[in-house]
């Protein structure tokens, strides 16, 4: 029987091989227990409400719902669960969005296993963890997103193929508000189309 003193972890990563490797690495730690592993972002909240993990390790790019939107849901609905973003995308704009979503830690996938284990323990203790490469880039480049959190969320859902009507329903806003936001986003990014806006924002790490 597993000890109740072990740190309960939720892991969300859509690439099966990477997810399996991460589970194996995490469970090498005697005080870690991966209680649930997921491949979709839209399954995270319900799984967290069921299993009540202390730490959720979430990749940014997940099907169903992006990792930062899922992290925002956890921050509001399961505040006892700390979130650690584990991603191969290392851009300052992504760091800013992670902090806005209530994320406690941000670490790159290429980090050594010891760094991941240490980050999980720090995050579980309520201390913020930011990969040194990301922190340095943020300080040096000041590459912050011109998009508001709401605009970033709308553009992210647009990138996932949702229509203005579907996004309005998801965010409990009017279709007119969504369309106005999309027009504002396109203008801010000097984009020709919404598809172009998605490309620009993704390249910059803003969504």
UniProtKB/TrEMBL annotation:
It comes from the Bacteria. InterPro entries: CheY-like_superfamily, Sig_transdc_resp-reg_C-effctor, Sig_transdc_resp-reg_receiver, Tscrpt_reg_LuxR_C, WalR-like. It comes from Micromonospora rifamycinica. This is Two component transcriptional regulator, LuxR family. SMART domains: HTH_LUXR, REC. SUPFAM superfamilies: C-terminal effector domain of the bipartite response regulators (SSF46894), CheY-like (SSF52172). Pfam families: GerE, Response_reg. GO terms for biological process: phosphorelay signal transduction system; regulation of DNA-templated transcription. Coiled coil: none annotated.
């Amino acid at each position: 029987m597993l000890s109740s003193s072990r740190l309960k972890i939720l892991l969300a990563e859509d690439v099966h091989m990477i997810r399996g490797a991460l589970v194996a690495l995490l469970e090498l730690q005697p005080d870690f227990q991966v209680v649930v592993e997921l491949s979709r972002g839209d399954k995270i909240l319900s799984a967290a409400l069921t299993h009540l993990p202390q730490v959720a390790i979430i990749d940014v790019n997940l099907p169903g719902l992006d990792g930062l939107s899922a992290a925002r849901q956890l921050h509001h609905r399961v505040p006892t669960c700390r979130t650690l973003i584990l991603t191969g995308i290392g851009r300052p704009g992504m760091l800013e969005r992670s902090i806005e979503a209530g994320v406690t830690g941000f670490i790159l996938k290429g980090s050594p296993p010891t760094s991941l284990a240490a980050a999980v323990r720090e995050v579980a203790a309520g201390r913020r963890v930011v990969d040194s490469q990301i922190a340095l880039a943020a300080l040096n480049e000041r590459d912050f997103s011109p998009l508001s959190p709401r605009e970033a969320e709308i553009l992210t859902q647009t990138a996932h193929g949702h229509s203005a009507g579907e996004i309005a329903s998801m965010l409990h806003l009017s279709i007119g508000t969504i369309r106005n936001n999309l027009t504002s986003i396109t203008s801010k990014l000097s984009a020709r189309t919404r598809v172009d806006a998605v490309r620009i924002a993704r390249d910059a790490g803003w969504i």
